[in-house]
Amino acid sequence: MEKIEKKNGRLHIYVRQDKYKGELKSKNWVGRSFVNGKQKVISSGTQNLEEAIPILEKWYDDLLLESTQPKPNEQPIVENKSIIQETAVDFSNSAKTDFKDTNSEVFNSSGQTVDQLNVTNVAKDNINFKEKIVEKLSVLKNTSELKGLTMGMLEKIKNIKFPKSFGNKTGDTGEKITTSINSINKEKIVKFAGSLKSLFSTKVGQLSVAGEEVAGVDITREAIRVAQVSKSKDEKWILDKFSYRLLDQEKIGNNPLESKEYLAEEIELAFANGKITTKNIALSIPVTSAIIRVVTSPLMTEEELQKAIETNSLWENLVQLTDNLSDYSIFHQVINRNSKNNTMEILFVASKLSDVNAYSSIVKKAGLNPVIMDVRCFSLKNAYDNSKTHLSEGKINTAILELGIDENYLMIIHNNIPVITDIFLRPQEKLSLMEVVNDQIPTEVDSVIRRYSMQIKQAISDYETKYDNKINNIQVVSNLKNLNFLIPAFKKNLLTMGFIIFDPLQSIAVPSYIQDKIPLDNKSILASVLGLAYRKLDVFGYYKFVTAVKNINLLPNRDAIRQSNKLKFLSGFAAKGLAASIAAIYLLLITFSFFQIQSNKKKLEEFTSVQTEFNKINKEFSTLAKQRRTMQESLNIGKLINSNQTQSFRALAQITRSVPSRVLFTKVSFDGKESVVIEGVAFSDQDILNFVSNLNSKSLIAQASLTTMKIVDNQKTNVGSNIKKGFVINCKLKNA
Q1: Claim to verify: residue 286 and residue 345 sit in the same structural domain
Q2: Model-level pTM greater than 0.70?
Q3: Which of 21, 284, 422, 697 suits a disulfide with 376, CB 3.0-4.6 Å?
Q4: How would residue 561 be classed by pLDDT, with cut points 50, 70 and 90?
Q5: 92 is a domain residue
Q6: What residues make up the domain containing 131?
Q7: 18 Cβ partners below 8 Å, 6+ apart?
Q8: What are phi and psi of 500, to 5 degrees?
Q9: DSSP 171-212
């Protein structure tokens, strides 16, 4: 790479060597410089060197000028200690002269009493002011200009005591304090809203995670393993379902991805044997198919980080990939932010899309739905985190070593940051490890183990030197059948290191019907499938609040999967809410009906006495009703008499007393003088004749005669069925 140095070697001008398919991505001249310990890079935008040099030199000059300017709200560097002394003296004097404390009364400089609330707020404000000055002086004391300044001045300012209550000299301090309080309240509201949102996302995410069924599928050269786990009421893991299928090595060949049909058939059989019904599965890709790095970048917000990723500028500057970014499936997560150094650390995990799609297509051929694509090393870490070994070791740092024909690496997790070291072995050296059949290690194999151990020792030594942490144990994960013969050989080369075959079943309950499927000598082969089974499909971003290595998903359509499952969860949540509401209504109605039935039973017990009482009262009511009808009939007849003479009423009374029991009036007409016409019905002719005879016997009736008589319609008379005769009688009254 041609590099031109300007500005006394502090400005480097060159053309970047990022290549795509053998060609430079960009031929523009780029400038690079280091200012305040940070690297700054900018493109000139031109391929002409003569045009690029003045552009990049001007950029460098502006960069230096900007670095020398004081930042907003930053105090300028003090160049003379006398300035600080004068500031401290003025501050001390103002504290003594402006504020007085006379017993419990508070006065300002004019001697006027000050409101107690304002005084308290001013006291807090000035105490904060004192602390700010002490903080500034503490920063300044380390600069070269203040080497001669003793700590005495700082101690004097720290020892200044403010009275608990004192006066307000400026008059506008109350308004400033109110404004400050309002701004603080707004900040608290914003923080509270953010905390509430995070809490909701966490809790609902936990609910969605708890209800999501995901099975782990581990695909290796020698076997297919599937598992599904759940949690008991006491939050302990249970291995609900497990099955495996040993693969025919002749059908697999050198590359398992070339036997997709065969692998899909074996996965279907494993699911059928294990009686696993869920279609959502988590699987992993080998470490050799993944790129895992922890990169450091300038501190950015989530929005700025997302924009940088969308324009591909972030990964092009931080990670040098051999192929185009579009050829990779990339997962990232910020695992550490350092505001002091203005930097942040990002976990970068990438894999070729071709590899991701190849593994996904295998399980899709088996009729399954891949929702999580992890990396094998992180699935082992997940299994380790859920084991008793992890809990018992506490703060002891432990490394995980995978030893096998395909994968050989050492992984150390430091503060959630993976430190992975590949162990290099030639193909013939890997095959030689399988030749060990007893405690007698062949010379050739012993030399391979010795070189293997040297690489492990170097990786651990580098880690301990960098992080000042001691590695005590190595948890070994391997699918080699002769692992028990190899471990002593490794211990011989690393005497201070403990080699332990990892047992992922220490903290998980295994039902009796699965016990026969578990290997007795080497349980570490189950670590990967269990680590995948522990994964749950994250719907609301719950795992963003957990360890980064537990959140890896390399599926290119992971956002679409999360969105669809979010809708599924919310719809299910709404359906459950509706069902719960309906159930609550039914429960309320059932409860009400129960109490109503009990009340009705008590009432039915008193039915006999109530019926007797009803009959008695009904009989009395019938008698009274009959009397009422009689009285009403009399009143109705009385209304027909319009005269108010005594003679008329006496005659009417005699007519009423003359009515036999089998005669009923329907109409009585009085002309107001001497004629009364009576219309009615009777049961028989004799009843009518008796009525006429009775009328003629009365003293106030001169003559009563039957004018007409006819058979009437019973339905029109509203009387009993025996009344058949209607009559009209004309009565002539005697003159008074």
Answers
A1: yes
A2: no
A3: 284
A4: low
A5: yes
A6: 84-171
A7: 24, 25, 26, 316, 320
A8: -130, 130
A9: S-HHHHHHHHHHHHHHHHHHHHHHHHHHHHHHHHHHHHHHH-
